[in-house]
């Protein structure tokens, strides 16, 4: 325990020492002198007019801060002051401002003093009992049982707090979820052991009529292809399955269409579709295959080969805006039937993962069960299993053995018991018996293994990490860092893309966006998928190359396929496969001008400079505006784009004094993105009005368009790096960032600056920080319980306008 404590405290001391090395701290008399000569006069001249005991704007009265001791005593208020000064939000526009050098000096000194105060009283915070969310449950089942099955998709949606759905305080346990857990554990146990009896069924999947056929092509199709339909499905058991499809429409009699049919990329059949338009013979329109498949995911694809030698009006697959140029033939529907003649107890990866001991000569059924169940429980519960727990699992095994009359029936019930145990469903970190209320203590090596695994993989520790945790090896800095770097390179780190980036960038919201089809006929399911894929590939590329986090703002490349490249107006990109594309100018590049982000920050019928500006402030700059007052009238929609421009309408809106302060921060950022319509397509006019995308930030920096705004943010990356670090720390800890965490976040960002803000340096900084490696014991105070977690923001129409 002493070694663990030494490692954790040393990690925190190193980060705190980074603050001292960057900004030397004065001795107390000099500290007080600096406060009286520099800080207090600054506050009196530039801040006290609004922030005083009488007015107390924003709940802060600086006239009460009379000495340097107030920094430690009121560090929450001082953190707010520091952020406002650092971002240039205060003093407000129009009021006297200090020379920038004077403000910079104050920001530097104040930051160092806040860090010194935190160093004297380190507080790692406390994470409550943490229920596995849906993604973590699915991934845990996958990694424990080698089972490609997502049982948690049937669970109720997880609540979110602070922008993420892995926040322990808001992951409640409604009664319906307990019922789901019991049902899922039984189904998972049967599926994993292959003990499910399947009757053949026939499912028909109709091709969406509102989606251009080109929207359904996958990378499994030939490069030169168009149209068709793709179906990816999990097949539960080794068996034969039926695939049947029907072609609709009228082919060109002078140039037959060529239908290409594939399974998992392998060609099944290629046939000319040349029947006359009046021919309704089903034998000519239908194609059928009966194939043996192994259990797991398979992709069935039927697509039409593109022939660019045909004339323009009859052939080309889609226009620049994504709409189909013709729809003469297409796949009407695909049917999938089966399983037929499933193999009994096939040798699947799941069975191999579970049945590591086979009863036979010298090995009784009970002896094998006594080896199998504790081994599975150890992985599932992320810790060694006690003898008492092993005995209980064997009791379940014997009950299942007796009821089913089969050895595997006993294993099934024992596995079900493992999966419904609170040891699997919850991440529990126990306070040491000797820990005093409110004291801090280091996590055990096993608890560190779990925290690290759920941070980077959203799943259980693998055998390597779990074994190191059991041996206490994760205390060693070189071992701990090596494991982080290994885990970041593992395919399971894709969880950071799905669960961190998907929520940080609001990418998950794209699936629910419904742009007006009359205003944006080019938007379809295929384009939606391409937008999502671009952002995912971009995030994964930066993570894999350990790039600078600043590249999220304005990287000179992205990932495109032909459809998305045409949508962006970028030439010389052909085919459905995504590939890295160097960008010709700053109009694209970075997440800010990606179609996915631009779409989720718009209304179905129009853009919203307010929502876009608010999104940037919240997710890129860490300076969210307060919620709008309840009596603010909505933006007047009538005449937008015809008699009044968006900028003119918002200028009238800002005339309301209760709106002006917040809109002065949000609107200029949103105006910079007005060249992109509600689905991210570039434009120069909004209706009949030329777009003016110029603006000015609270700091005084001016820009003329999105490219110049991105350059300003990239050239001054501190606020973005601090925001990214705070978001990632929130996700890593599973709790909201508290004021006591702010000095650590600054220290991590300063340390990362030495390596050009590489992503790994921020991940390592978070994993080595006191909040990640330590915990505060339960403390009962007169103040009562902590405040509830901040819910995820939900946009309402015109709520900010």
TrEMBL record:
Residues 443-570 form the DUF1592 domain. The keyword Signal applies. It comes from the Bacteria. The keyword GTP-binding does not apply. Residues 792-801 have a biased composition (Basic and acidic residues). SUPFAM superfamilies: Cytochrome c (SSF46626). Residues 588-686 form the DUF1588 domain. Transmembrane segments: none annotated. Residues 699-772 form the DUF1585 domain. This is DUF1592 domain-containing protein. The lineage of its organism: Bacteria, Pseudomonadati, Acidobacteriota, Terriglobia, Bryobacterales.
């Amino acid at each position: 325990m002493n070694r663990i404590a030494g490692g954790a405290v040393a990690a925190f001391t190193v980060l705190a020492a980074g603050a001292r090395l960057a900004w030397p701290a004065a001795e107390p008399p000099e500290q007080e002198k600096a406060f009286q000569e520099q800080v207090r006069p600054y506050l009196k001249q530039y801040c006290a007019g609004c922030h005083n005991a009488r007015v107390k704007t924003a709940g802060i009265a600086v006239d009460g801060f009379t000495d340097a001791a107030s920094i430690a005593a009121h560090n929450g208020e001082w953190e707010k002051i520091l952020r406002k000064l650092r971002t240039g939000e205060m003093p407000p526009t129009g009021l006297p401002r200090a020379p920038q050098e004077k403000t910079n000096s104050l920001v530097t000194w104040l930051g160092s003093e806040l860090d010194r105060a935190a160093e004297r009283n380190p507080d790692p915070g406390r994470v409550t009992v943490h229920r596995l969310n849906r993604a973590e449950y699915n991934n845990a089942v996958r990694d424990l049982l080698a089972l490609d099955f997502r049982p948690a998709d049937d669970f109720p949606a997880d609540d979110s707090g602070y922008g993420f759905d892995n926040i322990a305080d808001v992951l409640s346990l409604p009664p319906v979820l307990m019922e789901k857990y019991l049902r899922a554990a039984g189904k998972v146990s049967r599926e994993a052991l292959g003990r499910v009896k399947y009757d053949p069924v026939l499912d028909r999947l109709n091709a969406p009529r509102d989606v251009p056929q080109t929207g359904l092509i996958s990378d499994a199709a030939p490069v030169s292809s168009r149209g068709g339909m793709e179906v990816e499905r999990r097949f539960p058991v080794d068996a034969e399955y039926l695939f049947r499809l029907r072609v609709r429409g009228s082919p060109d009699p002078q140039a037959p269409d060529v239908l290409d049919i594939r399974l998992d990329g392998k060609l099944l059949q290629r046939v000319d579709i040349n029947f006359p338009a009046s021919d309704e013979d089903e034998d000519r329109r239908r194609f059928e295959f009966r194939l043996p498949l192994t259990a797991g995911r398979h992709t069935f694809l039927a697509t039409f080969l593109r022939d660019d030698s045909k004339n323009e009006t009859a052939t080309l697959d889609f226009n620049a805006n994504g709409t189909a140029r013709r729809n003469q033939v297409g796949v009407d529907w695909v049917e999938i039937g089966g399983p037929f003649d499933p193999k009994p107890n096939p040798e699947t990866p799941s069975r191999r993962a579970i049945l590591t001991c086979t009863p036979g000569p010298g090995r009784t059924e009970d002896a094998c069960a006594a080896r199998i169940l504790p081994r599975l429980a150890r992985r599932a519960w992320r810790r060694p299993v006690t003898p008492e727990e092993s005995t209980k699992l064997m009791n379940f095994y014997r009950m299942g053995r007796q009821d089913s009359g089969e050895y595997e029936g006993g294993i099934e019930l024992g596995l079900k018991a493992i999966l419904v145990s609170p040891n699997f469903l919850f991440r529990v970190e126990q306070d040491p018996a000797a820990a005093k209320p409110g004291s801090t203590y280091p996590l055990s090596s096993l608890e560190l293994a779990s925290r690290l695994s759920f941070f980077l993989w959203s799943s259980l520790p693998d055998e390597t990490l779990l074994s190191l945790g059991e041996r206490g090896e994760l205390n060693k800095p070189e071992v701990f860092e090596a494991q982080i770097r290994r885990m970041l390179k593992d395919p399971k780190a894709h969880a950071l893309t799905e669960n961190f980036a998907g929520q940080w960038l609001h990418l998950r919201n794209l699936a629910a966006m419904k742009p007006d089809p009359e205003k944006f006929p080019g938007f379809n399911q295929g384009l939606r998928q391409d937008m999502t894929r671009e952002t995912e590939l971009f995030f994964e590329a930066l993570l894999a190359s350990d790039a600078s986090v600043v590249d999220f703002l304005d990287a000179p490349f992205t990932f495109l396929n032909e459809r998305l490249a045409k949508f962006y107006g970028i030439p010389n990109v052909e085919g459905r496969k995504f590939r890295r594309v160097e960008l010709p100018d700053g109009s694209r590049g970075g997440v800010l001008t990606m179609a996915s982000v631009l779409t989720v920050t718009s209304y179905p019928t129009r853009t919203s400079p307010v929502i876009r500006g608010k999104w940037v402030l919240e997710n890129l700059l860490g300076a969210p505006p307060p919620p709008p007052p309840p009596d603010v009238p909505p933006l007047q929609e009538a005449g937008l784009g015809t008699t009044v421009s968006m900028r003119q309408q918002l200028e009238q809106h800002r005339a309301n004094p209760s709106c002006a302060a917040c809109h002065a921060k949000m609107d200029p950022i949103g105006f910079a993105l007005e060249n992109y319509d509600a689905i991210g397509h570039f434009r120069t006019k909004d209706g009949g009005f030329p777009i003016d995308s110029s603006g000015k930030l609270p700091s005084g920096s001016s820009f003329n368009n999105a490219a110049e705004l991105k350059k300003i943010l990239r050239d001054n990356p501190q606020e973005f790096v601090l925001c990214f670090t705070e978001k990632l720390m929130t996700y890593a800890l599973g709790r909201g960032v508290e004021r006591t965490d702010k000095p650590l976040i600054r220290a991590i960002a300063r340390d990362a600056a030495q390596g050009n803000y590489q992503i790994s340096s921020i991940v390592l900084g978070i994993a080595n920080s006191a909040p990640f490696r330590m915990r505060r014991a339960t403390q009962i105070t007169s103040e009562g319980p902590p405040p509830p977690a901040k819910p995820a923001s939900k946009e309402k129409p015109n709520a900010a306008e």
